[in-house]
Amino acid sequence: MKNATDPFLSLGYWPSAGSFGFNTDILATNPINLSVVLGVLIFFGKGVLSDLLDNRKQRILKTIRNSEELRGGALEQLEKARARLLKVEMEADQFRVNGYSEIEREKLNLINSTSKTLEQLENYKNETIHFEQQRAINQVRQRVFQQALQGALGTLNSCLNNELHLRTISTNIAMFGMMKEITD
What we know:
Blueprint: H1 6-11, H2 26-94, H3 96-159, H4 162-183
Helix pairs in contact: 2-3
């Protein structure tokens, strides 16, 4: 009884007198195929990845600029508070006998509230930067994972028979459904 792969195996034994033929040596063709696939992934994937990183960088820089503007506003408030403090100190000299302790209390409250406001703005800026960085990292990880998975599926598709191919597709569809539920 003849094996179903005999005609394909015999193609490799035809004399090659400058004619086209099939190379059935799997050890010689797999590195070539893998290098072609990796070359295509690198060529097309680096542009997408660099665009994604550039966009993320612009968003982070915009967030930093916004935070710096908020910081500038807080510094203006601090200057106004200092001017107010000078005014309060001048009034304190006039009313030192009657209300020295009250004025000192107001001065401390003003300084404390301004310091808290500056601290809150600084914390907000740092949290925003950290959040944007984590979001960018997660998006890059997801993109790299998707590209790697597509490459692996391409390699698997070329190596699988029909039954194994259908089972693999069903399993991957279920995985993508679970990933979608997790990300939603």
